[in-house]
Design brief:
The protein is mostly helical. It is built from one helix and two strands. A hairpin with a 6-residue loop joins strand 1 and strand 2.
Length: 61
């Protein structure tokens, strides 16, 4: 009987671990998606740069 209890406890622990891992996975994905949406809205067009051969610097066109 004790090996059965050990196997049952291991199965319950594995189930608990899988549920906790799934919750954490979903939480991180929600946070990443929220951050990506925020960054996509903040993107403003950047000017095209042109190389100035006399000074060697890059300047906006």
């Amino acid at each position: 009987m004790p090996p059965f209890l050990l196997i049952a406890a291991a199965a319950a622990g594995a189930l608990f671990g899988a549920k906790a891992l799934k919750r954490e996975w979903l939480r991180v994905n929600r946070e990443l998606e929220r951050t990506e949406r925020e960054q996509a809205g903040d993107a403003e067009p950047r000017p095209t740069l042109k190389h100035d051969k006399t000074t060697g610097e890059w300047r906006p066109q």
